[in-house]
Amino acid sequence: MTNPTAEIGVFGGSGFYSLLGDDAREHLVETPYGAPSDVVVTGEVAGRSVAFLPRHGRRHEYPPHRIPYRANVWAMRALGVRQILAPCAAGSLAADVVPGDLVVCDQLVDWTRGRRGTFYDGPRTRHISFAEPYDPWMRETIVAVARRLKMSVHDAGTMVVVEGPRFSTAAESRIFARLGCSVINMTGCPEAALARELTLGYATIALITDHDAGILAELDQKPVTQEAVVQMFAANLERLRQLLVEVIAELPEEPSPMSARALDDATFG
Question: What pTM value is reported for the model?
Answer without folding.
Answer: 0.93
